[in-house]
């Protein structure tokens, strides 16, 4: 008698085109169209220069079932995987940020194996200052699937890169689990991320924490590493919707600079 064994599901090969998809989610409550258009143009020009895909979404595009709108970034990354199934990497960059250096390519500058091995911070507390869970000391650049940074408050989810594939699906689905969204973490998805990274070895084993200046430099050093000329992007950390320290005012300081840099690229 012959038995039919179920065949193993073969994962579809990813061609790596486009190399990167740039993902940003815009808050529908922001009514400053000049500011939003500035951010959109920044993303589109950078993506066009390198042949990258873009997913520029709005928080209202996704049904978060009552969860804080900041959770939309996780759904948007999953959306990007569906829209660009052959992309190699996905870079989430918060709305309140500008790409400043048009010459740097994510697949080389951030995700290149040698670059990662030199930059990743090994055997450090995942959540500073005193987490007992530490980043892997033997992780190789080729094994990394998820790159993010820490700031003075802990892990930062304003800028991160994920390698497309089955692991990415598992990770994003784990992160978006309804259980975590119902916990009412103080910092919503960021505290949920800190939780799963520390208690899921499957995730920690693919994680590289890199210095902030590589993908997540801040406009001031009150909360983390400060932006310097040449960094890939500047993030307007803890800016407000209105007032003297509004995100739009912070962006004004850098808008002419990015436009000049891009026009010369």
From TrEMBL:
One of its GO terms (molecular function) is alpha-1,6-mannosyltransferase activity. One of its GO terms (biological process) is protein N-linked glycosylation. Gene3D superfamilies: Spore Coat Polysaccharide Biosynthesis Protein SpsA, Chain A. It comes from the Eukaryota. It holds the Pfam family Glyco_transf_34. The keyword Plastid does not apply. Keywords: Glycosyltransferase, Transferase. GO terms for cellular component: mannan polymerase complex. PANTHER family: ALPHA-1,6-MANNOSYLTRANSFERASE MNN11-RELATED. Belongs to the glycosyltransferase 34 family. This is Uncharacterized protein.
């Amino acid at each position: 008698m012959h038995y039919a064994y179920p065949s193993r599901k073969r994962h579809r090969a990813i061609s790596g085109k486009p190399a990167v998809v740039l993902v940003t989610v815009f808050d529908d409550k922001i009514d400053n169209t000049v500011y939003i258009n500035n951010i959109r143009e920044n993303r589109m020009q950078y993506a066009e220069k390198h042949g990258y895909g873009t997913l520029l979404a709005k928080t209202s595009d996704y049904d978060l079932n009552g969860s804080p709108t900041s959770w939309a970034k996780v759904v948007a990354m999953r959306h990007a995987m569906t829209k660009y199934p052959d992309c190699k990497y996905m870079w989430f960059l918060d709305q309140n940020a500008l790409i400043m250096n048009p010459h740097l390519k994510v697949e080389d500058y951030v995700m290149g194996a040698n670059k990662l091995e030199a930059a990743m911070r090994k055997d450090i507390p995942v959540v500073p200052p005193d987490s007992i869970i530490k980043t892997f000391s033997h992780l190789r650049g080729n094994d990394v699937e998820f790159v993010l940074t820490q700031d003075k408050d802990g892990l930062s989810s304003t800028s991160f890169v994920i390698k497309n594939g089955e692991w990415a699906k598992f990770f994003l689905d784990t992160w978006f689990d309804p259980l975590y969204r119902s916990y009412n973490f103080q910092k919503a998805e960021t505290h949920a991320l800190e939780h799963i990274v520390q208690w899921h070895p499957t995730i920690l084993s693919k994680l590289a924490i890199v210095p902030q200046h590589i993908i997540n430099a801040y406009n001031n050093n009150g909360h983390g590493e400060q932006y310097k000329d040449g960094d890939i992007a500047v993030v307007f950390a803890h800016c407000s919707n209105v007032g003297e320290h509004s995100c739009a005012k912070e962006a004004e300081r850098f808008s002419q600079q990015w436009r000049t840099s891009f026009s010369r690229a």
